[in-house]
Design a protein that fits this description.
The complex is a heterodimer of chains A (341) and B (702). By secondary structure, chain A is mainly alpha-helical. Chain A is built from 10 helices and 2 strands. Classes of the chains: A mainly alpha (341), B alpha+beta (702).
């Protein structure tokens, strides 16, 4: 998604004259210019709403409008005739706009081999991120091919392209920069966040195997993320996203270290369960020592249950705080850096 | 004789495990009725041809296979059909193609008729010979060998086979009784034989007649049973793990599956006088809680509703069958205490935790502390208490306990592990492997599908040995193969069984499942082939260990590759992305292991036994008198004595983890079993060699 805006900015060209129907080479180029302007406008409108608006329905409306414009642009591109037999520009534009459509619709299967991605990646989330990355690459390539064809067409038809920046393109450039920065920090945050969710799920299932595997992986990921965040540059001297991601990271690191106690607790609970069964099966013929021993075990396990409950509550609180911190920082970041429509 | 008996018993237990491995169970509750087998054959053909991973072509060759399998299944001892009978039946083979497709139904009715006639003849023969003494001097010598039996040529030869069968059984039983009574060899003379012969002859004849009657009055109905065996043979011609369950067989199969773990909490055994007595009383069971029963109590009478089983003179098998019958939920047990008093105790079948089925861990202490975990099966029976968690979780817990003991290496024992849930095998691999694909599964389209572990990370990343043998099958082989392909573990032991397929159980007529008629039958079908992450397979060839040890099981030729019509090994060509670990440097470690085994008396004995088992097919003994038989038995005993006591004391000391010790000190029964396990491990020479290999691995890593 982030790539779109670079292209739109560079495409903001002006021509020496303009007419309604496509008769001349200049009209032909202008067709693309108009298409891209319409998409840019809708995109700005959508992003502005998402950063500054408060109504979900309105945001959804804006999203639908953007998708509608993209669809219309693709249809127009299909209907467009080659200019005097020159198919290169049309062909490259069609390919570019089709990839753009798929990316906005998150329909990556049309661009990349999802099955191969699924087999190469560890889980659905990794597959999704990998698909996004590969789709971005494809868009990059298609954009570049379109740019070259566009410039060649202009040169072949002796049209001079003048680059200038109007207000729209300036705003889009700002959005592009903010988005790109957010995406970079988000990926570092997200890997730890997802791994933490796997761990929480394992704890809920009391699956010691999964707890142990996921907690060591969480620790590893948190350390990796720490190094990345330590070297990440602030956005226009704004450290807020980095700090919020670091806070969540600290929580995750602490949690993975404390989870050893949860495993211990589950093993002790198992042990007590066995003792209880033996004791209950024993009938009335128990010695005083057996009864005393058992009572002591009950006391011990009750203490452990208490301690474990307290720890789980503390962890839940810590998680909520860290996540709220991250979400608020993201909201503020977009409010600050995404320009209004 | 004992060793072979032990081997055979363990084989049967393991084969039972195979039956329940890698299956999906579909519960059913349909009433049994007369089945239209012609229709059943057509349906079975439909299912095999559409679902089987490699459906056979229905032609003349297949017909021959089916008939061979059927004869082997219905008459394994070659005592009910003569060669003449078989030749007459083979005339139907030409039309068998139509039979299998369900277009006609002549072969099975014809064979059923012949079988019935021959069974009745045999029964009559036994009656006629009930009062005929088995002599000490034989008119016709008896030839004993380990070679496969040939089929008697005609009716007269068949009768002669029956005569020899009675004679051999009586000789064998008298010899066994002498063993039980600890009679000296010199005293096992003609007089001893003549004294015991009448009673034992009666027992032998009764047992043979019971076998015949069990067939003729099969609970499924005789005709239905023969037809079911035929259809099962047909399924077996596709591969050894496919099968057919008629309505009654399926109900029995299902209830035995559902009843798994349900018992009265008592084990029966025979005492030295041949009487049926109580063996183990399972702690926590009702029998145990009653406080009225003790091991050694003589069982006199078992009643269940209107059914009574008087145990006079003792028939262990009959008593065990009575208890195992899934329809008996409560029984009344009359026992005689050693002091002569009697007790009547009411018992109800309950789910009893089978301790021996659970994963166990120990610490092997000598120079190094090494962890040891034994896993008997990849169990995954859903249980509310464990919230759906299975053996992989149990193994992870044991590893955590062992890590607290500061172990430097881990030996994971998969010997005699017949498999089970593939999902558990995946989770188990995840304990040792960071992440990545673990293998592939393909159906009849041949398109492989990658399978992975659900969790990133490991629970244990230290040195690892997987110990396997010829009975490590299915899920065990999958795990061993994955860990070998990743260079994660050193595989030690002998080549594994070679089953890399998965089965499902499908109703033959799903559209009729709510009707009472012929809808309750099922087919077990091999629907998937399983591949290693390299695209190769453990099917047929098994997993070949990195360090090989001699193994008796191999000589018994029971592996997948010896099963008739097993699926051949193949491979898939698919690019799989996975990161191998650096290989263990094994050359030096292997050399040292070979040197140690060459010096070990136990391994030398094992090698000798393997050689003897492989060669004994050619051995023949001719018996003309009771004396000859005694001499032959003694000579076999002598031979087996050389392989007896295949144990050797290990240098390490086996102990429990600290956490287990808490439970053991409170649970007397568990502790008793534990002492038994400790002793077993302490003298297990395979484990002892594994420990030495592990020491070398750790040493080399430094």
């Amino acid at each position: 998604m982030k790539r779109l805006f670079f292209f739109i900015v560079t495409l903001s060209v002006t021509f020496s004259s303009f007419s309604q129907s496509i008769k001349t080479a200049l009209d032909y180029l202008n067709f693309f210019n108009q298409q891209e302007s319409a998409i840019s406008q809708k995109y700005l409108s959508y992003m502005s709403e998402s950063a500054h608006g408060s109504k979900l329905r309105r945001l959804e409306q804006k999203r639908k409008e953007l998708l509608g414009t993209l669809r219309a642009a693709q249809n127009n591109a299909t209907r467009l005739n080659p200019f005097k037999g020159d198919t290169l520009l049309k062909k490259n534009y069609e390919s570019y706009i089709s990839i753009l459509n798929s990316i906005f619709n998150e329909d990556y299967g049309k661009i990349v081999d999802m099955e191969e991605i699924a087999e190469q990646s560890y889980d659905k989330m990794e597959a999704y991120l990998m698909a996004q990355e590969l789709a971005d690459q494809k868009l990059d390539e298609a954009t570049e091919r379109f740019r070259v064809a566009f410039e060649k067409f202009a040169a072949d038809n002796s049209i001079k392209l003048l680059q200038h920046e109007d207000k729209l393109s300036q705003k889009l450039a700002k959005i592009g920069k903010a988005n790109q920065y957010y995406h970079r920090i988000y990926l570092v945050f997200f890997k730890v966040y997802k791994q933490e969710a796997y761990l929480t799920d394992a704890v809920q299932r009391k699956d010691v195997n999964a707890i142990e595997q996921n907690r060591t992986t969480l620790l590893k990921y948190a350390m990796e993320a720490q190094t990345k965040l330590d070297t990440a540059k602030p956005f226009q001297r704004d450290q807020s996203l980095i700090m919020a991601a670091k806070k969540f990271n600290q929580f995750a690191k602490a949690e993975s270290e404390k989870m050893g106690a949860v495993t211990d607790y589950l093993l002790k609970a198992d042990e007590f369960d066995k003792l209880r069964k033996v004791f209950e099966a024993g009938g009335d013929s128990k010695s005083k020592a057996e009864v005393d021993n058992y009572n002591q075990s009950v006391k011990n396990i009750n203490k452990l249950i208490d301690a474990n409950n307290q720890q789980m509550q503390a962890l839940n609180k810590g998680r909520s705080l860290a996540l709220d911190g991250w979400n608020n920082s993201v909201k503020e970041f977009f409010e600050t850096y995404i320009p209004k429509e | 004789m004992d060793l072979i008996a032990i081997i055979v018993r363990s084989i049967l237990q393991d084969l039972n495990r195979f039956i329940t491995s890698l299956l999906f169970f579909i519960p059913c509750s349909c009433l049994f009725a007369q089945t239209d087998f012609q229709k059943e054959a057509a349906r079975l053909t439909e299912i095999i041809s559409t679902r089987h991973v490699a459906p056979p072509t229905i032609d003349k060759q297949l017909s021959k296979k089916v008939v061979d399998l059927f004869l082997e299944a219905i008459d394994p001892s070659k005592i009910y059909f003569s060669e003449d009978d078989v030749n007459r039946l083979r005339e139907h083979e030409a039309q068998m193609v139509d039979e299998l497709k369900g277009l006609q139904w002549r072969f099975v009715p014809a064979i059923t008729e012949v079988l019935k006639k021959n069974l009745e003849n045999c029964n009559r023969f036994l009656d006629e010979n009930r009062n005929v003494n088995v002599p000490t001097i034989l008119k016709q010598p008896l030839e004993l060998s380990y070679a496969p039996l040939t089929r008697p040529s005609n009716e007269i030869a068949l009768q002669s086979r029956w005569k020899k069968m009675v004679l051999y059984s009586v000789y064998l039983k008298v010899m066994e009784q002498a063993g039980i009574d600890s009679i000296k060899a010199s005293a096992v003379n003609d007089a001893y034989f003549l004294k015991l012969e009448p009673a034992i002859r009666e027992k032998v004849i009764k047992a043979e007649q019971r076998k015949i009657n069990n067939l003729l009055h099969h609970p499924e109905g005789f005709e239905n049973h023969v037809a079911s065996v035929f259809l099962n043979s047909y399924a077996l011609s596709a591969d050894p793990h496919s099968g057919y369950f008629g309505s009654a067989a399926m109900e029995k199969f299902m209830s035995s599956f559902l009843a798994e773990g349900f018992s009265f909490g008592i084990d029966l055994q025979e005492d030295k006088d041949g009487a049926v007595v109580l063996g183990r009383i399972v702690p926590g069971s009702q029998a145990w809680r009653s406080g009225q029963l003790n091991p050694g109590d003589k069982v006199m009478l078992i009643t269940s509703g209107i059914k009574r089983l008087e145990i006079v003179g003792g028939d262990l098998q009959e008593a065990e069958d009575f208890l195992k019958d899934p329809s008996r939920e409560t029984i009344e047990l009359l026992v005689r205490k050693p002091n002569g008093t009697t007790r009547t105790v009411k018992l109800r079948k309950e789910k009893v935790a089978l301790e021996e089925n659970v994963v166990r861990s120990y610490v092997l202490n000598e120079e190094k502390k090494i962890g040891y975990i034994a896993l008997p099966g990849f169990y995954s029976a859903p249980d509310e208490k464990t919230e759906g968690l299975r053996c992989a979780n149990d193994v992870a817990k044991e590893i955590i306990k062992l890590k607290k003991e500061n172990i430097e290496g881990l030996i994971f024992d998969l010997r005699n592990n017949g498999g089970g849930s593939l999902q558990e095998a995946l989770s188990m691999a995840g304990i040792f492997i960071e992440e990545g694909p673990l293998g592939m599964i393909a159906d009849k389209t041949g398109l492989p599908h990658i399978v992975k572990d659900n969790n990133r990370g490991t629970v244990y990343d230290g040195p690892l040995i997987i110990l396997v043998n010829g009975f490590s099958a299915s899920a065990s082989e999958f795990l061993a193969a994955a860990l070998q392909d990743y260079n994660r573990a050193v595989i030690v032991g002998s080549t594994t069984y070679g089953k890399a397929t998965a089965q499902v159980i499908l109703p033959l007529a799903p559209e009729e499942k709510n009707e009472k008629a012929s809808s309750a039958s099922f087919a077990k079908v091999t629907v998937n082939r399983i591949y290693r992450v390299t695209g190769k397979t453990a099917q047929e060839r098994g997993v070949i260990p990195d360090i090989v040890m001699p193994d008796v099981i191999k000589a018994l030729k029971l592996a997948e590759a010896y099963q008739p019509y097993h699926l051949r090994a193949d491979s898939v060509n698919k690019k799989v992305f996975f990161t191998k670990l650096p290989p263990y440097p094994l050359a030096d470690i292997k050399r040292k292991s070979v040197e140690r085994m060459a010096k070990s008396e136990a391994f030398a004995k094992t090698e000798n036994l393997v050689r003897w088992l492989a060669a004994r097919g050619d051995e023949k003994v001719v018996i003309s008198t009771w004396k000859d038989f005694v001499a032959a038995s003694q000579s076999l005993d002598e031979k087996l004595k050389a392989f007896d006591d295949l144990r050797s004391d290990a240098k390490f000391k086996v102990t429990n983890t600290q956490q287990d010790q808490h439970v053991l000190s409170a649970d007397h029964f568990l502790n008793e079993m534990n002492q038994h396990y400790l002793l077993e491990l302490q003298t297990d020479y395979y484990l002892s060699e594994c420990y030495s290999i592990m020491k070398d691995l750790i040493q080399q890593a430094k």
